[in-house]
Amino acid sequence: MNLGLDLDGTITESPEYFALLKKAWKRAGAKIFVISYRSDYNKAKEDVERLIGEVDEIILVDSFEGKAAVIKEKHIGFYYDDQPEMMHNIPAEVQVFLVRNGGNFDYHDRRWVMSDKTAKLI
Q: What is the CATH number of the domain that holds 51?
């Protein structure tokens, strides 16, 4: 299965981890796609290559739905992102991983920061 990675807030949070993950995934013969909500392809490519090296493809989208469509189209089975909102449209068979950062986690309160659209309190 292919691997999908968000760039900002994900790869940028832990480039060492994602570089190691990328190497392991490549050894397994799968493809790695970076899917980013950016508009400047050259800057995205420069950042990806600087942070984790070359990947199979960098795809820029302009919506959360666009990311979900790419995940389905590229047969991505595992996907990392930092925005819970992104997970809404991803097919159930895709394993998703939420990367913790200052935008989605309150380190002082030690709680996730989510809206009622992204979390169901139990």
A: 3.40.50.1000
Question: Could you give the 3-state DSSP secondary structure of residue 119?
Answer: coil
21-61 pLDDT, tens digit each: 999 999 999 999 999 999 999 999 999 999 999 999 999 99
* DSSP bridge pairs for 35: 59
Strand ranges, E, within 1-122: 2-5, 32-36, 57-60, 76-81, 95-98, 105-106, 111-112
Is the model's pTM score more than 0.90? yes
Length of the chain: 122
**Domain hosting residue 6, numbered range:** 2-112
